[in-house]
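Notebook p. 47: complex prediction with zinc ion.
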Amino acid sequence: MTDFLIAPSILSADFARLGEEVDNVLAAGADIVHFDVMDNHYVPNLTIGPMVCKALRNHGVTAPIDVHLMVKPVDRMIGDFIEAGASYITFHPEASEHIDRSLQMIRDGGCKSGLVFNPATPLHYLDHVMDKVDMILLMSVNPGFGGQKFIPGTLDKLRQARELIDASGYDIRLEVDGGVGVGNIAEIAQAGADTFVAGSAIFNTDDYQSTIDAMRAELAK
Ligand code: DX5
Ligand code: ZN
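Predicted complex, C-alpha coordinates below:
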Protein backbone atom coordinates (compact mmCIF):
# COMPACT_ATOMS: atom_id res chain seq x y z
CA MET A 1 0.00 0.00 0.00
CA THR A 2 1.24 3.47 -0.87
CA ASP A 3 2.27 5.66 2.03
CA PHE A 4 0.38 8.84 1.33
CA LEU A 5 1.69 12.08 2.81
CA ILE A 6 -0.48 15.10 3.50
CA ALA A 7 1.44 18.35 3.31
CA PRO A 8 -0.49 21.45 4.42
CA SER A 9 0.78 24.58 2.69
CA ILE A 10 1.35 27.22 5.35
CA LEU A 11 0.78 29.88 2.70
CA SER A 12 -2.86 29.79 3.81
CA ALA A 13 -2.06 29.75 7.55
CA ASP A 14 -2.41 32.80 9.80
CA PHE A 15 1.11 34.22 9.62
CA ALA A 16 0.56 36.21 12.81
CA ARG A 17 0.33 32.88 14.67
CA LEU A 18 2.49 30.71 12.45
CA GLY A 19 4.13 28.50 15.11
CA GLU A 20 0.78 27.68 16.65
CA GLU A 21 -0.79 27.03 13.24
CA VAL A 22 1.98 24.56 12.33
CA ASP A 23 1.67 22.83 15.73
CA ASN A 24 -2.09 22.55 15.25
CA VAL A 25 -1.96 21.14 11.75
CA LEU A 26 0.67 18.56 12.77
CA ALA A 27 -1.38 17.60 15.82
CA ALA A 28 -4.32 17.19 13.43
CA GLY A 29 -2.41 14.51 11.53
CA ALA A 30 -0.42 16.29 8.83
CA ASP A 31 2.76 14.49 7.79
CA ILE A 32 4.97 17.26 6.44
CA VAL A 33 4.92 21.06 6.33
CA HIS A 34 4.82 22.60 2.85
CA PHE A 35 6.72 25.91 2.88
CA ASP A 36 6.17 28.21 -0.13
CA VAL A 37 8.97 30.64 -0.89
CA MET A 38 8.03 33.40 -3.37
CA ASP A 39 10.31 36.21 -4.47
CA ASN A 40 8.17 38.69 -6.45
CA HIS A 41 10.41 37.92 -9.44
CA TYR A 42 9.97 34.31 -10.49
CA VAL A 43 6.36 34.53 -9.26
CA PRO A 44 4.25 37.63 -8.67
CA ASN A 45 4.03 37.33 -4.88
CA LEU A 46 6.33 37.65 -1.89
CA THR A 47 6.26 35.32 1.10
CA ILE A 48 8.70 33.88 3.59
CA GLY A 49 12.37 32.93 3.60
CA PRO A 50 14.97 30.93 5.51
CA MET A 51 14.63 32.95 8.73
CA VAL A 52 11.06 31.78 9.08
CA CYS A 53 12.07 28.17 8.45
CA LYS A 54 14.73 28.50 11.15
CA ALA A 55 12.18 30.09 13.49
CA LEU A 56 9.86 27.09 13.07
CA ARG A 57 12.75 24.75 13.94
CA ASN A 58 13.57 26.89 16.99
CA HIS A 59 9.91 26.79 17.93
CA GLY A 60 10.25 23.00 18.15
CA VAL A 61 8.87 21.76 14.83
CA THR A 62 10.51 18.38 14.17
CA ALA A 63 8.32 17.24 11.24
CA PRO A 64 9.85 17.35 7.76
CA ILE A 65 9.74 20.82 6.18
CA ASP A 66 9.12 20.70 2.43
CA VAL A 67 10.57 23.90 0.99
CA HIS A 68 9.10 24.83 -2.41
CA LEU A 69 11.35 27.46 -3.95
CA MET A 70 9.61 29.81 -6.37
CA VAL A 71 12.67 32.03 -6.71
CA LYS A 72 15.20 33.01 -9.32
CA PRO A 73 18.13 32.63 -8.99
CA VAL A 74 17.90 29.41 -7.01
CA ASP A 75 21.30 28.42 -5.65
CA ARG A 76 21.81 30.97 -2.91
CA MET A 77 18.47 30.06 -1.35
CA ILE A 78 19.45 26.38 -1.41
CA GLY A 79 22.40 27.04 0.89
CA ASP A 80 20.34 29.25 3.17
CA PHE A 81 17.53 26.71 3.50
CA ILE A 82 19.95 23.85 4.20
CA GLU A 83 21.26 25.97 7.09
CA ALA A 84 17.72 26.81 8.18
CA GLY A 85 16.69 23.19 8.69
CA ALA A 86 14.81 22.29 5.50
CA SER A 87 14.14 18.59 4.84
CA TYR A 88 13.07 18.69 1.18
CA ILE A 89 14.11 21.48 -1.18
CA THR A 90 12.42 21.65 -4.57
CA PHE A 91 12.90 24.26 -7.29
CA HIS A 92 11.58 25.07 -10.77
CA PRO A 93 14.04 23.95 -13.46
CA GLU A 94 13.47 27.09 -15.57
CA ALA A 95 14.71 29.17 -12.65
CA SER A 96 18.10 27.46 -12.38
CA GLU A 97 20.98 28.03 -14.78
CA HIS A 98 22.52 24.67 -13.82
CA ILE A 99 19.88 22.18 -12.81
CA ASP A 100 22.24 19.29 -12.13
CA ARG A 101 24.41 21.46 -9.89
CA SER A 102 21.45 22.80 -7.94
CA LEU A 103 20.16 19.27 -7.34
CA GLN A 104 23.59 18.16 -6.22
CA MET A 105 23.91 21.11 -3.83
CA ILE A 106 20.67 20.05 -2.14
CA ARG A 107 21.79 16.46 -1.60
CA ASP A 108 25.29 17.50 -0.58
CA GLY A 109 23.63 19.60 2.12
CA GLY A 110 21.85 16.53 3.46
CA CYS A 111 18.39 17.43 2.16
CA LYS A 112 16.09 15.63 -0.23
CA SER A 113 15.98 17.20 -3.68
CA GLY A 114 13.25 17.78 -6.21
CA LEU A 115 12.11 19.51 -9.37
CA VAL A 116 8.82 21.37 -9.73
CA PHE A 117 6.87 21.49 -12.97
CA ASN A 118 4.45 24.28 -13.80
CA PRO A 119 1.32 23.23 -15.69
CA ALA A 120 2.96 23.97 -19.06
CA THR A 121 6.51 22.87 -18.19
CA PRO A 122 7.45 19.61 -19.93
CA LEU A 123 8.67 16.62 -17.93
CA HIS A 124 11.72 16.24 -20.16
CA TYR A 125 13.77 18.25 -17.69
CA LEU A 126 13.93 14.94 -15.84
CA ASP A 127 15.58 13.06 -18.70
CA HIS A 128 19.12 13.15 -17.35
CA VAL A 129 18.57 13.66 -13.64
CA MET A 130 16.21 10.91 -12.50
CA ASP A 131 19.00 9.58 -10.29
CA LYS A 132 19.33 12.97 -8.60
CA VAL A 133 15.75 13.67 -7.51
CA ASP A 134 13.93 12.42 -4.42
CA MET A 135 10.70 14.23 -5.31
CA ILE A 136 8.85 15.34 -8.42
CA LEU A 137 6.32 18.09 -7.75
CA LEU A 138 3.65 18.79 -10.33
CA MET A 139 1.92 22.14 -10.04
CA SER A 140 -1.80 21.81 -10.65
CA VAL A 141 -2.19 25.61 -10.69
CA ASN A 142 0.10 28.36 -11.90
CA PRO A 143 2.35 29.18 -8.96
CA GLY A 144 2.03 32.34 -6.90
CA PHE A 145 -1.19 32.12 -4.96
CA GLY A 146 -3.25 29.79 -2.82
CA GLY A 147 -6.92 29.12 -3.41
CA GLN A 148 -6.83 28.53 -7.18
CA LYS A 149 -8.72 25.86 -9.07
CA PHE A 150 -7.11 22.50 -9.88
CA ILE A 151 -6.15 22.28 -13.59
CA PRO A 152 -7.60 18.93 -14.81
CA GLY A 153 -4.80 18.30 -17.35
CA THR A 154 -2.54 17.62 -14.37
CA LEU A 155 -4.10 14.17 -13.99
CA ASP A 156 -2.65 13.03 -17.30
CA LYS A 157 0.71 14.54 -16.45
CA LEU A 158 0.66 12.72 -13.10
CA ARG A 159 0.11 9.43 -14.91
CA GLN A 160 3.11 10.19 -17.15
CA ALA A 161 5.29 11.12 -14.18
CA ARG A 162 4.21 7.96 -12.34
CA GLU A 163 5.26 5.86 -15.35
CA LEU A 164 8.65 7.58 -15.45
CA ILE A 165 9.19 6.97 -11.74
CA ASP A 166 8.15 3.33 -11.89
CA ALA A 167 10.31 2.69 -14.97
CA SER A 168 13.31 4.34 -13.31
CA GLY A 169 13.26 2.04 -10.30
CA TYR A 170 14.26 4.96 -8.04
CA ASP A 171 12.52 5.85 -4.83
CA ILE A 172 10.95 9.18 -5.83
CA ARG A 173 7.91 10.82 -4.29
CA LEU A 174 5.27 12.29 -6.62
CA GLU A 175 3.78 15.43 -5.12
CA VAL A 176 0.93 17.58 -6.38
CA ASP A 177 0.34 21.21 -5.44
CA GLY A 178 -2.62 23.49 -6.10
CA GLY A 179 -6.36 23.16 -5.75
CA VAL A 180 -6.20 19.84 -3.89
CA GLY A 181 -9.03 19.10 -1.46
CA VAL A 182 -11.30 16.42 -0.05
CA GLY A 183 -13.37 16.43 -3.24
CA ASN A 184 -10.58 15.53 -5.66
CA ILE A 185 -7.79 13.91 -3.62
CA ALA A 186 -8.90 10.34 -4.43
CA GLU A 187 -8.86 10.97 -8.17
CA ILE A 188 -5.43 12.62 -7.88
CA ALA A 189 -4.08 9.62 -5.96
CA GLN A 190 -5.46 7.28 -8.61
CA ALA A 191 -3.47 9.21 -11.21
CA GLY A 192 -0.29 8.37 -9.28
CA ALA A 193 0.38 11.09 -6.71
CA ASP A 194 1.50 10.03 -3.23
CA THR A 195 2.13 13.41 -1.59
CA PHE A 196 -0.61 16.04 -1.42
CA VAL A 197 -0.12 19.73 -0.78
CA ALA A 198 -3.26 21.45 0.44
CA GLY A 199 -3.35 25.04 1.63
CA SER A 200 -6.77 26.66 1.56
CA ALA A 201 -8.57 23.29 1.73
CA ILE A 202 -7.10 22.77 5.22
CA PHE A 203 -6.40 26.20 6.69
CA ASN A 204 -9.69 27.72 5.55
CA THR A 205 -11.60 25.14 7.59
CA ASP A 206 -12.34 25.42 11.31
CA ASP A 207 -11.35 21.89 12.19
CA TYR A 208 -8.05 20.80 10.63
CA GLN A 209 -8.33 17.31 12.07
CA SER A 210 -11.68 16.54 10.46
CA THR A 211 -10.47 17.89 7.11
CA ILE A 212 -7.30 15.77 7.20
CA ASP A 213 -9.32 12.75 8.39
CA ALA A 214 -11.70 13.25 5.47
CA MET A 215 -8.74 13.38 3.06
CA ARG A 216 -7.35 10.13 4.50
CA ALA A 217 -10.77 8.51 4.24
CA GLU A 218 -10.86 9.45 0.55
CA LEU A 219 -7.35 8.04 0.06
CA ALA A 220 -8.37 4.76 1.70
CA LYS A 221 -11.24 4.24 -0.77
C1 DX5 B 1 1.05 28.03 -5.05
C2 DX5 B 1 1.70 27.29 -3.91
C3 DX5 B 1 0.83 26.31 -3.22
C4 DX5 B 1 -0.40 26.90 -2.58
C5 DX5 B 1 -1.48 25.89 -2.70
O1 DX5 B 1 2.01 28.69 -5.76
O2 DX5 B 1 2.85 26.58 -4.37
O3 DX5 B 1 1.56 25.51 -2.31
O4 DX5 B 1 -0.24 27.24 -1.25
O5 DX5 B 1 -2.64 26.44 -2.20
P1 DX5 B 1 -4.05 25.73 -2.41
O6 DX5 B 1 -3.95 24.39 -1.78
O7 DX5 B 1 -4.97 26.66 -1.69
O8 DX5 B 1 -4.30 25.67 -3.88
ZN1 ZN C 1 3.82 25.06 -3.05
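Notes: The first helix runs from residue 18 to 27. The pocket of D-xylitol-5-phosphate (ligand 1) is lined by residues 9, 11-12, 34, 36, 68, 141, 143-144, 146-148, 177-180, 197-201 (CB under 6 Å).
Next step: compare against the earlier run before touching the bench.
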